[in-house]
Amino acid sequence: MKFGVIMFPTDYAIGPGELARAVEERGFESLLFPEHTHIPTSRRTPWPGGAELPRDYSHTLDPFVASAAAAAATERLRIGTGICLVIERDPITLAKEVASLDFISGGRFLFGIGGGWNLEEMENHGTNPAQRWKLLRERVLAMKAIWAEDEAEFHGEFVN
């Protein structure tokens, strides 16, 4: 069995590089960073954790920037997203970010994905929450085509 750590990298917490070194020194297999591009000031969607939304959510750093810092500071630790909100990102740019991080980390990048829970955040990115799972699937398929083909094409209902 392998164990990893997940932590919101914030502007008031330990830095991603320092955290990654500490996680690697303690023998963990991986370090994952969650994603929220922003927290809308007006939210209807309740936080799945129950009470008030923790401050971490509105102060979190970009998981790809944090992952790059963690990768640069370590040698064996697997780093990645836990999770990346694919429905809030352009699939062409995201495919390049993921491939770049995997390359600079020496193949240590773990790409965790999900559809999210904050409906207003999705809507701010132009995503219809009712369609998010179909959109997520198409964007992942499009990214797989980009990674596998020199001249990639993908044609779907949401991604073309």
UniProtKB/TrEMBL annotation:
Entries under Pfam families matching the protein: Bac_luciferase (PF00296)
InterPro entries referenced in this protein's UniProt entry, alphabetically: Diverse_substr_monoxygenases (IPR051260), Lucif-like_OxRdtase_Rv2161c (IPR019921), Luciferase-like_dom (IPR011251), Luciferase-like_sf (IPR036661)
Gene3D superfamilies referenced in this protein's UniProt entry, alphabetically: Luciferase-like domain (3.20.20.30)
Query: What molecular function terms (GO) are annotated for this protein?
Result: oxidoreductase activity, acting on paired donors, with incorporation or reduction of molecular oxygen
Residues in Luciferase-like domain copies: 18-159
Sorted alphabetically, which NCBIfam families does this protein's record hold?
Answer: F420_Rv2161c
Stated name of the protein: Luciferase-like domain-containing protein
